[in-house]
Amino acid sequence: MKIEITEQFKDSMERLFSMNPWYAIPRWLRDARFEIKSAWQRLTRGFDGRMWWSHYYTHSEMMVAVLDEYIKHHIGHPSHMESSEWEKILVDIRDGFQAILEIEDKLPWGDDSSDEYKALDEKFRNGMALYTKHYRNLWD
Q1: DSSP alpha helices (H): ranges in 46-134?
Q2: What is the pTM of this model?
Q3: What span, in angstroms and rounded, lies between the C-alpha atoms of 71 and 86?
Q4: What DSSP element (H or E) covers 11?
Q5: What would you report as the CA-atom Rg of the chain, rounded to the nearest whole angstrom?
Q6: How far apart are CA 114 and CA 46, in angstroms?
Q7: Nearest-5° angle of CA 84, CA 87, CA 89?
Q8: What span, in angstroms and rounded, lies between the C-alpha atoms of 113 and 93?
Q9: Could you tell me how far CA 53 lies from the centroid of its own chain?
Q10: Which residues 6+ apart lie within 8 Å of 47 measured at CB?
């Protein structure tokens, strides 16, 4: 199946992502309103609409950031392993969450037969297995 992009669509996309103030200021105001609404939702119910609409993606973004901090600043580690071993596990878990973001962002939707998809999916599955195994050890 071939998808053709019309000139009208191209023009619309250029306006949408343009830095021209005529288009950028209304977009900034709309985005600011959304951010304020999201902040209010986090204050009143503990999560915002992004966690509701696309939990796995938003959670993965958050976990990559959290795990990056654990990797940089971890003080403790489980008593049955060395610090370097724990750091490798944290990196593998982080890479698993990063893999699902890459699948969503870089690969065409529904393309699960490519070698790149299979490699990222394997990394994701490995990371999730470690995440569930070491879930109660994620503290510092």
Answers
A1: 49-53, 55-73, 83-106, 115-133
A2: 0.72
A3: 9
A4: helix 7-16
A5: 20
A6: 38
A7: 115
A8: 24
A9: 13
A10: 41
For every residue of 26-56, which 3-state class applies, written as one string?
A: HHHHHHHHHHHHHHHHHHHHCCCHHHHHCHH
Phi, psi for 123 (deg, rounded to 5): -65, -40
CB atoms closer than 10 angstroms to residue 106: 10
Report pLDDT digits (tens) over 72-118.
988 888 888 998 999 999 999 999 999 999 998 887 776 777 888 89
68: helix, coil or strand?
helix
Where are the domains positioned within the chain? Answer: 1-49, 54-140
* Residue matched to tokens 């393309």: 111
Tokens of 50: 């992004």
Q: Which of 60, 128, 66, 135 is nearest to 92 (CA)?
A: 128
Which amino acid type is present at position 65? A
The string of pLDDT tens digits covering residues 38-82 is: 899 989 999 888 888 888 899 999 999 999 999 998 888 888 899
